[in-house]
Write a sequence for this structure.
């Protein structure tokens, strides 16, 4: 087999020792996919169909959801699973299509770094969100935020 031909799907594995990260990446895509179906469609159903539906979405709606640990964890789980899933999927595509070793390395690192940064920022937003931050006397939230 030369470098540009693929091994037959059922041929014996060359790698015998250590953790098979590619296999676990493959398993992760399936497992996170199943969880994401529940999380994403649950998210869409609650936000767009229940109560006043899409017309009910405003700052207060989001603030109300972020005040509940249940929705904080729902959203953070969705953020982590989808970002790692999306980044790992993009890594697969880059590995499949980018033939230059340097370009491939740069792109895979860029994907990893941007996913890590977005996960960090998103997690901080969900857990440190404070609707009263920067509220002034001319805001509708002023009264509520005095307590
Ligand atoms: C509704 C929930 C989702 C399910 C059930 C799902 C399922 C899957 C599965 C099973 C794969 C592997 C395909 C393969 O190996 O051939 C995959 C690949 C991928 N997914 Fe998802 N996914 C979901 C949501 C998402 C989201 C939200 C994103 C973006 C953040 C995303 C981005 C990707 C990418 C970029 C790939 C790689 C595509 C490729 O290899 O050609 N997916 N998805």
């Amino acid at each position: 087999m030369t470098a540009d031909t693929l091994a037959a799907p059922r041929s014996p594995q060359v790698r015998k020792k250590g953790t098979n990260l590619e296999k676990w990446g493959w398993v992760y895509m399936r497992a996170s996919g199943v969880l994401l179906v529940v999380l994403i469609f649950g998210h869409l159903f609650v936000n767009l169909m229940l109560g006043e539906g899409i017309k009910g979405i405003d700052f207060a709606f989001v603030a109300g959801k972020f005040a509940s640990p249940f929705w904080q964890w729902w959203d953070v789980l969705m953020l982590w699973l989808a970002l790692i899933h999306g980044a790992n999927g993009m890594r697969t595509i880059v590995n499949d299509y980018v033939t230059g070793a340097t370009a491939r390395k740069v792109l895979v690192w860029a994907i990893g770094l941007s996913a890590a940064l977005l996960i960090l920022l998103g997690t901080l937003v969900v857990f440190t969100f404070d609707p009263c931050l920067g509220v002034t006397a001319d805001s509708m939230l002023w009264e509520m935020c005095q307590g």
Remarks:
- The chain has one domain: 21-146.
- The mean pLDDT is 92.
- Helices lie at 21-48, 59-66, 69-97, 101-128.
- The pocket of protoporphyrin IX containing FE is lined by residues 29-30, 33, 36-37, 40, 82, 85-86, 89-90, 92-93 (CB under 6 Å).
